[in-house]
């Protein structure tokens, strides 16, 4: 599901470049050729955070309860229909998020933390927030 969101965020790259807002991804691991595969979907710079410092003092996990959530199944089906295929390599239970971070002391201007797998950020909110940066 992260590949689908990476592709959608990458579709904003030219608009973000016009606003001089760079696009970055932080991933938690690099197994085999997984990072190279992810980079096919993401057009910004990608960093690997093996110590998971960026994931916060408390990582947010979704355990086997994910199999019982209809929203997760809907998100998986949507992603599959759009042609995004995942795999079961690596640790896949940590929830991710999207942040728009302003320059200097502005800090986090938009924060979207997944509540369940495939819970995507609103792309219009990302653009609106980027436009409001000083």
UniProtKB/TrEMBL annotation:
UniProt subcellular location: Cytoplasm
Main location: cytoplasm
Highest taxon in the source lineage: Eukaryota
Cellular component aspect of the GO annotation: cytoplasm
Keyword Repeat: no
Family: Belongs to the peroxiredoxin-like PRXL2 family. PRXL2A subfamily.
Protein name from the UniProt record: Peroxiredoxin-like 2A
Organism: Seriola lalandi dorsalis
